[in-house]
Amino acid sequence: MTVPQDKSSIDSWMLKSFEFAEEALTNNEVPVGCILVWKDKILATGRNEVNETKNATRHAEIVAIDKVLEYCEEHSEDKTKVFSEITLYVTVEPCIMCAAALRSVGVSKVVYGCKNERFGGCGSVLNIHTDTLHQLGPSFQCVDDVMADEAVQLLKTFYKGENTNAPDGKRKIKDNNC
Amino acid sequence: MTESQCTAVIKKLKPDESCMKCDSMKIEPVLHDKYTALVELVDAYVCQLTNKKRTSDLLRFLSTKYPLSEHPHVKRVKSTKSTDNTTTVQVVICEHSADLTCDVIKSTLTEFTDCIGCIGVVKIPSTAPLTRKQYEVATQYWPVNFYENKIITQLLTDSYFNYDDKEIIQQHMKEAIDMALIAKQKQMMPVGAVIVDPVTNRVIAKCYDKRSGTHPLQHATMVCVDLVAKSQGAGMWNYTTDDKFYNCEMKEDEINNDSKSGPYLCTGYHLYITQEPCVMCAMALVHSRIQRVYYGSKHIEGALGSKYKIHVQDGLNHHYQVFNGVLSEICDQLWTDYG
Ligand SMILES: [Zn+2]
Ligand SMILES: [Zn+2]
C-alpha cells in the first residue's frame, strides 16, 4: 500500500471523517462521513444527505466530489489533476455506486473504516475498485479497517432506530428476482 | 422537440421504418444467469427395487437415513417401462461421495436385502430447474419436481407484453431519444432518459447525459433520479432552463411523507434510457428502488447485462427488472457522427 501517511496521521484524518458521520446521525441519516485530503489539507467534506434531498444517491462521497468540482471551478484548477492527487477518508467502505463514481473522477487512494456488507463496491459485494473498466476510469487502491469498530458502532446506533422517511409499506421491498 | 420532429429525425436516421412497427419490436428481458444456466449434475447411488410392495417402507427408511436435503427437487423413484411392458423401478439412495462406499450403504440396508437389486451410480440434476427448458433437460437424467414461474415463462417466450404495452414502451423510448437528440445538438453525449409512473403513464422526469459538461457524474440516470427528487420538492443538483430538462411537480398532498402511498424515491417507477447504464448508474437505481428499466443500446461496460447484472446481483437487497433492445437500431444510430 502506498498511502503516504503513517498510521497515526491516517487515524487522525479518519477521526475527522467521524465528525461528519456523527453529524449525519444527528440529522437522522445513515451515519457515514468522509473527507477528501489534497496537499495535506482537507479540500472537501461530506456526509449522507439522502433523506434531506430525497435522493438515494446523495452519499457522503458524492457530496464531497461535488464540493471538489465547485472548488476547481472557482479556483480554475484542473479537476482531473486534483482528483488524482486526492486521498479519500471515509468511515465505511464505498458502495458500488460510489466506488464507480470515485473511478470516474479519478480518485486514486481510498482509506475506509468498516466493511459495507450490504452494498460494498471495494471487496464486499463487488470489486469495482480493481475490476477491468477502462472507460469508467483508473482503478484505485484501498486501505481498510481504519477505526472499523467505531464505524460499526455508529451504524448500529442508527439501525436500532429505523429510517423514518420510508413509508411503512415500502420499508421492505419484495425482491423481484428476474 | 415536438413529436413530429422526433419522428422526422427517426425517419432520417432509419429510412426503413420496419423497426418502428410494434409487432416486430424487440423487447428482451435481461434475466439472472441462473435462468439460462446449463443443468448441473451430480452422481448418486441408486438401487433397483425388485419387490414393489415394499416401496413405501423403503422410502420411509431412506427419508430418515439418507434425506435428500441438498436436492429436495429430486424425486426418489424413477419408473421406466421397457418395450415388453415390464416396469423397472429405481430408487435414489443418496448423493455419491468418496467415503461412502457401496458396501457401507449395503450394510445399512440389511432389512431390505430381499427387495432391492444391486446398487449403481447415476447422474441426477443438482439444482431445481427454473425454466421449462431446464426441466426438460433435467428429466432426461432423473425425474425432478418443477414449479413453473409463469412470469419467467412469459418473459422467455416473448409473451409478457401485448401489442398495447409495446406501443406504450415505444412511445416512452421515443421521448428518451428526443432528449438524446437535444444532447447531441449541445455537443453532449447522445444519451436520453425518461422516468415514468407506469400506473398512470405520467412522465415524472426526463433529461440527457451531461457528463461531458462541467460535471463528470451527471450521467443521464443520475440526473433523472435527481429530477425525481425534484418532483418531490427536493434534489441535489441545480439545472437551468437552457438544459431543457423536465420534472413534474407533485402536489403537497402527493408528497406528504406521512402518507403511506406517497412517492418514495423511484419506488414503482420505470426508467427508459437510450443506452445501457454504467455500474454507478445501475447501483444508483438499486438505491433509488426503481422497479424496471428499458434500454436501447448495449454498452461494453454496461452494468445491466453486458459487464454486470447489478439488477439481479446476489447479495443486494433490491432487485429490478430490465429489458433491452427497445428501438435499439435508432439508439445505436444516435452515436453516428458523435464526437
Ligand atoms: Zn455510496
Ligand atoms: Zn452511468
Poorly predicted segments of chain A: 168-178
Cα(first) to Cα(last) distance of chain A is: 40 Å
Structural category of chain A is alpha/beta
Uncertain runs of chain B with pLDDT below 50, 5 residues or more? 14-19
Number of strands of chain A: 5
User: What would the principal axes of the Cα set say about the shape of chain B?
Assistant: elongated
Largest sheet of chain A: 5 strands, mixed
Query: What is the ordering of alpha helices and beta strands of chain A?
Result: HEEHHHEHEEH
Identify the strand order in the major beta sheet of chain B.
1-11-10-9-6-7-8
Q: Say what oligomer this is.
A: heterodimer
Global Rg of chain A: 16 Å
Distance between the termini of chain B: 22 Å
Features:
heterodimer; A: 178 residues; alpha/beta; 5-stranded mixed β-sheet; 6 helices; disordered C terminus; B: 339 residues; alpha+beta; 7-stranded mixed β-sheet; 4-stranded antiparallel β-sheet; 10 helices; elongated; binds zinc ion
